[in-house]
Automatic annotation (TrEMBL):
Lineage, opening ranks: Bacteria, Pseudomonadati, Spirochaetota, Spirochaetia, Brachyspirales
Cleaved signal peptide residues: none
InterPro entries given in the database record: SBP_5, SBP_5_dom
A Gene Ontology BP annotation from the UniProt entry: peptide transport
Domain Solute-binding protein family, residue spans: 36-290
Protein name according to UniProt: ABC transporter substrate-binding protein
PANTHER family xref list: OLIGOPEPTIDE-BINDING PROTEIN APPA, PERIPLASMIC BINDING COMPONENT OF ABC TRANSPORTER
Similarity comment: family membership: Belongs to the bacterial solute-binding protein 5 family.
Record keywords, A-Z: Signal, Transport
Keyword Transport: yes
Gene Ontology MF, one: peptide transmembrane transporter activity
Top-level taxon: Bacteria
Length: 865
């Protein structure tokens, strides 16, 4: 009996334990699913490695799950097979290298005076800068440094991305080649220097002696900032280019700086301070792009904020009026036809190449790696930029013993820091490093739309446009700028920063950086469309509302309009970013059902998705270059710090003026100061001017308290709205942790399904390199297909199309369509077409696509005789 009694209690005990276990397991699964909101994982932990090889090894061995930094070919291709077998690789043409030149003063006699001493700047001569394109052997850089994992690049348009081939034909027509022409470059540079020496101001001062150019008897030298924290890439590339420059008789002083130092010296100082002459730059693609007008603006135009001077009003700035005029038209949608758009962009590309203030060297094939065993499936990724925020949002890893799904992400930082720039969600310079971007983006749904990582198409996220209400009316104007024909009603509202009121019947006149608001009874627009915003919950638990949208309009109007000489709210950098697009802007109508009837002056006839995407409002306020967004109370507290001062005594700025303290929502002192402003706002029941009709005192106080509580709980002030929020951060320890936001409304699975697509890839092309114009030209194109984001290659999908574009020597192209015969696409260019062409070298562009995804693009050349 005793045995039976003990067995009974043992069975009963095991039964109870089993019940508890099942109950707990069931509850835990339910809680886990609920707490994840729409995410597939519970947490993300970011860390850094100072050595890329060690980082890859840690991913292969399962010590980390994902390497979010792109790996250069020189490193990846040297990995052992045992490590490669454990890795899932995402291979994309995502990176580019460039050289940025300081052209100050960019005019004869090419001298600059600093601290009473006059220097001769050879890079102020356009012909010297242009000749650098020929001095450098791009193929040699790729073969020797990147181990072949890259392509020569001459423009900002990354080869292989959609819509890029037109841009990349221009440098080829200018005679630029992958091998360069060192003899020509040295000859051209010396000729330009001789011409400068013959200027009256330089005669007798600038001369060449014993192989070196001298000015006032001192060797002409330039300061070359080379990124020392890229030891397998830009460091050897910079050293090689420096040696080439010295062959021209110009001495090179190498400044081996890390990211922080180079950023401060190059991007944050006045070019006329003459602290630098050249910088080795590296760029991530940033997104998968279908259109390149914005990138053109950033890389070649003052108002894009990335040229020397950064468009900071107080600095000397590189400026080209023709480039600015074209860019204003094309990036703001002020054209009538696709031909006008392309003609403008091609001319702007020509100017960028001719001016050569920034020259491109190569694109990089970059490799992003994940541990195969840890993931339940492939992540979404940018076919043009690799691992990005969609990768993090779609990541699904296996759970640990406690049932938690934790994604461990590594980034490479030679300096050993995750935090390389201030986290300012308002000014143009905040969150400016790649490390911040990959951390912040999964936390933020900033825009009403985004570009698909697979097709580059604009997709709505925070609202929806009613295409049934879409009206477009555009005709030619007298000054080259189109005129709208869509009537704007008299009750269309706009915030007037001069009166600090919402007013009807206003339009904006923007000229030379000055903004005026004028009344009119006959307002017209290019486009009209109704837009219904989608609201969400902020990370501090407060539902978003109309006030978040209206505050953004008030803030932008105030910050870009200099209402008087003492206007402290005005910021020149933000004005430079927003003001050009505001010329001719009109108001909108807020409807009773909560929708907006929006009127705009942006016309884009080539892509209706992009056209409609411009008719949207979002909670995005400042920091225009990054995917960041915060609620109005954080933005307002920051502006109060800037305008009124802080408890700590720090004098804060949203500009890039290094004499003040940058706003930084992760810095403990700044966070404490923001918290104090929120307390002041709460206690005074403060409501910012311009949003009084959309929020009452009780609601405002609730928001301020929620923000204070969030800061107290998490130690930072980056309150946003994405599927993850920052739950732990320690900038000193380089530790940051994201947790799934339980109140995020959208499912990661929904977006994975929506963004997955069938894609094609050109594998090989068989064609003759020399063609007789009296014979047909036969071409075979081998194409595979795969299901993005998976990469299992298959025979070409039956819906695959292959387009072949023969580029004519004097411009224009002849389009052909290849036909699928068996497993090969075949095309014959008939001799009757070739016989009408002049002898010489020709370029052919090949594009394969299945539907509206990003096409696979390859270019080849042949000689016709």
């Amino acid at each position: 009996m005793k045995f039976k009694f003990l067995n009974y209690f043992k069975l009963l005990f095991l039964f109870i334990i089993a019940i508890l276990f099942l109950t707990c397991s069931k509850d835990k699964n339910n809680i886990s699913q609920t707490d994840r909101g729409g995410a597939l994982i519970d947490k993300i932990i970011f860390n850094i490695r100072t050595d890329m090889t060690i980082a890859i090894k840690d991913v292969a061995e399962g010590k980390a799950d994902l390497m979010a930094s792109g790996i250069d070919g020189g490193v990846y291709l040297s990995l052992e097979k045992k490590d490669l077998d454990k890795l899932d690789t995402y291979e994309v043409p995502s990176g580019t290298w460039s050289l940025l030149f300081n052209p100050v003063p960019n005019k004869a006699p090419y001298t600059i005076t600093k601290d009473g001493k006059t220097y001769f700047n050879p890079l102020a001569i356009r012909e010297v800068r242009f000749a650098m394109n020929f001095l450098i052997n791009r193929k040699k850089l790729i073969d020797e440094i990147l181990k072949g994992a890259g392509m020569p690049s001459f423009t900002q348009a990354t080869p292989g991305q959609p819509g890029t081939y037109r841009y990349n034909l221009i440098p080829l027509r200018m005679g630029m080649t992958e091998n360069g022409n060192e003899d020509k470059a040295i000859k051209d540079i010396n000729k330009a220097m001789e011409n400068a020496a013959n200027l009256p101001e330089n005669r007798g001062k600038l001369k060449k002696e014993n192989g070196w150019w001298k000015y006032n008897n001192e060797i002409v030298s330039i300061k070359f900032v080379i990124r020392v924290d890229d030891p397998s890439g830009r460091l050897p590339a910079g050293n090689s280019i420096a040696d080439l420059i010295e062959k021209t008789g110009i001495k090179v002083e190498k400044l081996l700086y890390d990211r922080n130092k180079s950023t401060q010296v190059v991007y944050l100082t006045d070019p006329k301070d003459y602290e630098w002459n050249i910088l080795t730059e590296a760029w991530g693609a940033g997104a998968t792009r279908a259109w390149w007008d914005v990138t053109l603006r950033q890389m070649y135009v003052r108002e894009g904020n990335y040229m020397p001077g950064g468009n900071v009003a107080e600095f000397w700035n590189y400026d080209n009026k023709e480039a600015s005029k074209i860019s204003d038209k094309n990036s703001n949608g002020w054209f009538l036809t696709s031909e006008e758009y392309w003609d403008g962009n091609m001319r702007l590309q020509e100017i960028g190449l001719q001016e050569a203030v920034r020259i491109y060297l190569n694109s990089q094939t970059q490799f992003f790696v994940a541990n195969k065993e840890r993931f339940n499936g492939r992540m979404l990724y940018g076919v043009g930029d690799g691992i990005n925020d969609w990768s993090i949002r779609s990541a699904d890893v296996k759970p640990n013993r406690r049932g938690e799904k934790i994604l461990r992400v590594l980034q490479h930082s030679a300096q050993g820091s995750l935090f390389m720039s201030p986290w300012d969600p308002v000014g143009v310079g905040g969150f400016s490093d790649a490390y911040s971007g990959i951390i912040i983006s999964p936390c933020s749904d900033s825009g009403a739309t985004f570009e698909s990582p697979s097709t580059a198409k604009d997709i709505f996220r925070l609202g929806e446009a009613d295409t049934n209400t879409l009206e477009i009316g555009v005709v030619a104007g007298n000054n080259g700028i189109p005129v709208g024909t869509v009537d704007v009603p008299k009750n269309a509202m706009m915030f007037n920063p001069y009166t600090q009121k919402w007013e009807e019947g206003l339009t904006i006149v923007s000229k030379d950086g000055n903004i005026e608001y004028k009344k009119s009874d006959n307002l017209k627009a290019y486009i009209k469309c109704d837009f219904k915003p989608k609201y969400f919950k902020w990370h501090h638990g407060i539902e978003s509302s109309l006030v978040d949208l209206m505050y953004g309009s008030v803030f932008i109007a105030n910050v870009v309009t200099k209402t008087n000489d003492n206007d402290k709210y005005y910021d020149s950098a933000l004005a430079g970013r927003y003001a050009p697009a505001m010329d001719g802007a009109v108001g909108s109508v807020l409807n009773e059902d909560g929708s907006f009837t929006l009127y705009g002056n942006y016309y884009f006839p080539m892509d209706i998705d992009r056209q409609i995407a411009t008719v949207a409002v979002s909670p995005k306020i400042g920091n225009p270059n990054r995917n960041t967004v915060v609620p109005f109370e954080i933005n307002e507290a920051i502006m109060k710090l800037v305008l009124e001062g802080s408890k700590s005594g720090n004098v804060y700025t949203i500009s890039q003026d290094q004499s003040f303290t940058a706003i930084d929502v992760k810095n403990p002192t700044c966070v404490s100061d923001i918290r104090e402003k929120l307390i002041e706002m709460r206690d005074s029941k403060y409501i910012p001017v311009g949003i009084e009709q959309w929020i009452n005192e009780e609601e405002a106080v609730k928001r301020y308290q929620a923000a204070i509580d969030f800061i107290d709980n998490y130690g930072h002030a980056y309150i946003s709205n994405g599927p993850f929020f920052i739950s732990k951060i320690d900038s000193k320890a380089n530790y940051i942790e994201l947790s799934a936001f339980k109140d995020y409304s959208e499912s990661a699975k929904y977006w994975i399904e929506k963004l997955s697509t069938k894609m094609s890839r050109i594998e090989d092309i068989e064609y003759p390199s020399i063609v007789n114009k009296n014979e047909d030209m036969n071409i075979n194109i081998y194409v595979s297909s795969y299901d993005y984001p998976n990469n299992n290659l298959e025979l070409p999908d039956e819906n695959t199309k292959v387009k072949v574009l023969l580029q004519l020597q004097k411009g224009g192209e002849i389009e052909y369509n290849a036909n699928l015969e068996g497993e090969v696409f075949k095309l014959t260019i008939p001799k009757k077409d070739l016989s009408n062409l002049s002898a010489g070298e020709y370029i052919i562009v090949f594009e394969s696509f299945i539907a509206d995804e990003s096409p696979s693009i390859e270019t080849r050349s042949f000689v016709l005789r």
